[in-house]
UniProtKB/TrEMBL annotation:
Catalysed reactions, semicolon-separated: D-glucarate = 5-dehydro-4-deoxy-D-glucarate + H2O
Pathway: Carbohydrate acid metabolism; D-glucarate degradation; 2,5-dioxopentanoate from D-glucarate: step 1/2
Protein species of origin: Verminephrobacter aporrectodeae subsp. tuberculatae
Known EC number: 4.2.1.40
Protein name: glucarate dehydratase
Gene3D superfamilies tied to this protein: Enolase-like C-terminal domain, Enolase-like, N-terminal domain
Residue ranges constituting the Mandelate racemase/muconate lactonizing enzyme C-terminal domain according to the UniProt record: 154-249
Pfam families: MR_MLE_C, MR_MLE_N
Main enzyme class: lyase
Domain of life, source organism: Bacteria
SMART domains: MR_MLE (SM00922)
Bilayer-crossing regions: none
Length: 415
């Protein structure tokens, strides 16, 4: 077998419409996701696919700048690529973790295609055929095109959650909070938990609450069927204080996202459940390594979502398939998307789960027409400031936050 060598790296930024703008503690997704699709070419005609959040000229330029590191590299040599791109001391000056993740996806895709096996067989073999997901819920602004999709009140939240449960079969439910005053969101979360009956729930204000508010909120939901309490406050020590005062496991995807932080958390526990993100951790393989550490120390894990399209979703599915200690449903923004850029269209939920792709590599291929369509859409719409909320001009968040959105404000928003 001829070992392939990388010949080119190509990046295409796309924007893909959402059902409605998604609000969060730091701002909003303004009615679309902006993602960068990466294609890694080889001298044997095999191309691998990667994906990264964000995009535009800066992301495309960053990948172009790495071509000199990668042309001639053997995509089987993943450890060598890791140190080429993200040497830990060099990365103090050029943090490339998320760039490396997209390149790692693509190299795993190439290797799987060359060997004609799915990625999960490169990663230890799958333990499950499907990955169950939670109904990732957001407070949402109305869609600017048709005025539909708003989620602002408890009634709207419950209606939306039950509609998603009926449509996709979700059996667990996560609310992204940190938008409205904590007491308002506490009431809404209780309404959600009671509406979904025996299904477990989880609440995530993205670290926006003070330690004291987080403790008060946590105590206020202790009687619910919680999977965990995700990032209620910022920082390892803040999380330790909450953990000492609330009888719910704490989870994070913000304060334990690398091995140094994982070691610190094991030596002085602040978090019980580590949410592994194939982008934030720098690839599929680092997540699997971290899951092994968590297995050793009996920390819980789950699969985190950072706004994926089909390529990154495939990376999440393959990762979830091989990890033995995955007991929580995964997160995915995927059901908020109006379309996808992979052949066959968006992957389907069945009873709240998505089947792990079985084709070679990641098991997904680009739909060139869709890629072109949404690249053009990006060029016409541009990016958006993730850390700003179109409903609150001039606003920016504090940590801990004290400047909440007004839940009575239903004025139309232009974005």
């Amino acid at each position: 077998m001829k070992r392939p060598k990388i010949t080119d790296v190509r990046a295409t930024t796309i924007a893909l419409p959402l059902e409605a703008p998604l609000r969060h503690s730091n701002g909003a997704h303004w009615g679309r996701f902006v993602r960068t699709i990466v294609e890694v070419d080889t001298d044997i005609g095999v191309t691998g696919l990667g994906e990264m959040g964000g995009g535009g000229e800066s992301a495309e330029a960053a990948f172009r700048a790495l071509k000199s590191y990668l042309v001639g590299h053997d995509p089987f040599e993943l450890e060598a690529m890791r140190f080429k791109i993200t040497n830990p001391t060099a990365s103090l000056y050029n943090n490339r973790t998320q760039l490396h993740a997209a390149l790692e996806f693509a190299c795993i895709d190439i290797v799987g295609k060359v060997l004609n096996i799915p990625a999960y067989d490169l990663l230890g073999g799958k333990l499950r055929d499907t990955i169950p997901f939670a109904s990732y819920l957001f407070f949402r602004l109305p869609n600017q095109e048709n005025g539909q999709g708003e989620v602002r009140t408890a009634d709207q939240l419950v209606e939306h959650a039950l509609a998603l449960k009926k449509q996709h079969g979700f059996q667990a439910h996560k609310l992204k909070g940190g938008v409205f005053p904590p007491d308002y969101e506490l009431e809404a979360f209780h309404a959600l938990a009671h509406a979904v009956g025996s299904d477990p729930v989880r609440y995530d204000p993205n670290g926006a609450l003070s330690v004291e508010d987080a403790i008060r909120f946590g105590r206020g939901i202790e009687n619910l069927k919680n999977d965990y309490f995700e990032d209620p406050t910022w920082g390892l020590n803040g999380m330790r204080r909450v953990r000492a005062n609330v009888k719910i496991p704490l989870a994070t995807n913000t304060v334990v996202i690398n091995f140094e932080q994982l070691a610190a958390n094991i030596l002085n526990p602040a978090v019980d459940v580590i949410l592994l993100d194939t982008t934030f951790w720098g690839g599929i393989r680092p997540c699997i390594k971290a899951a092994g550490v968590c297995e050793t120390f009996q920390l819980g894990i789950s699969v985190h979502s950072s706004g994926e399209l089909g390529v990154q979703l495939a990376s999440m599915l393959h990762m979830g398939a091989v990890i033995p200690n995955l007991v929580f449903t995964a997160d995915a923004h995927y059901h908020h998307l109006m379309d996808d850029i992979i052949l066959g269209g968006p992957m389907k939920y069945q009873d709240g789960a998505i089947q792990v792709p079985t084709g070679p590599g990641l098991g997904v291929e680009l739909d060139r027409d869709k890629l072109g369509q949404y690249a053009d859409y990006y060029k016409s719409t541009g990016g958006y400031p993730y850390d700003r909320d179109p409903a609150r001009p001039g606003w920016f968040s504090l940590v801990p936050n004290t400047r909440w959105a007004d839940p009575a404000d239903s004025r139309p928003v232009k974005y």
